[in-house]
Amino acid sequence: MAPNDPTPTADNDRPTTKTATKSRFAEARAWWTEAWDKDGILHQQWEDLRRAPDAGWHGMANWIKAVSAVAVFSFVVLLFNGAVDVLLDAVHHILTAVPDVQVGDNTSTGVWATIDNPVRSYLAAHSTGLPISASTVYTIWQVTGLFSLIAGFITRSNGVRLTWAAWGGAGMAMVWTTTPDTSRTVATAIAVLAWTFASAFALRGLNLRPRVFTTVHTGAPQITVQPQIHVPAQPNGPGPDNVRQLGR
pTM for the full model? Predict the structure, then answer.
């Protein structure tokens, strides 16, 4: 039966905030003490860390491997992000370092001018409307040829050699298109000779002959040797098996 006293409960009869705080602190302290016991979670993790240097990568705990992998991956991503920014900035400076290419701007001299000036004029005349300047296109053209020449000589890669062949064919086509009709044939012939001479280095070791692999069978019979031990028959006792094969 409910009491008839309508008097509300006094504030002193309720648990105070200070008492609740002490209770939570006691629970946290109890959990901390239990976690550092012999079978506690913190004690086990500390033991995993202590044994990790001697256990090596394969013997250490899985959670240490996971944390180490995440840390190394984050560090590599951070370095890669900074390196990409530096590399792109350097490439931008390299590509824009050359002067502007003008149509008919004959800056080369000698035999090289017979090849280089038509290429410069062709790139300048056909780079209008591109998001990059004609000078950048010309620099990319030079870097591609130099890279395919050196990389083809060092690596002997078929992909690099195809790049070198395409670069040479495009260059000869530009020389043929831009050079005046009166000297077009001679200029193109000089470009072909120059590219062929450089190909001796870029296509080093290239052999167009198909490889034929020949297998020679001597036809000699295969001889199988099975060593045996013959045990003489004993006069007294059961007759043993006189033949014993090794390995059986």
Answer: 0.48
